[in-house]
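We close this part of the discussion by returning to an individual protein. The encoding preserves chain order, so positions in sequence and tokens coincide. The sequence in question and its structure tokens are set out directly beneath this paragraph:

===
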Amino acid sequence: MSFFSLGNKNQPSQKSAELTIELAKTFAAEMRGIGAPWIKAYMRFEAGDEWCGCKGSYTTEDGTTLLDVFKHKELMRRFQELGPQLREALSHNGKKFCVTLLTIDSEMNYEFLYEYNDTNKWEISKMDGGSGVPEGV
């Protein structure tokens, strides 16, 4: 689990820590509700100044499944609501992340990764030979 030391100059703000924890809890709750035994789950959030989107997947012993946006509508809505707030809370000197990847395992350990330049980082797809696991993970 990721915890932040608050109050230091280059540390995340209280708001960003709260948003990070809320997003992780939301994703963990959704994954608990899947029912099938899963190993690892991924949620990729991408944003610009005027738009945002997210995509998720999870692995099992049998392979990788993409999260259906219609079956997981509330999860997607929550990420599209809180993701831009996290992006703003973590901005530094006008620089904002363009992609964040939340990874969570079946024991509910989680990690956030942030990318500030490459909007194609950690894409999740099964098209063109993609595995459904974020590229580069």
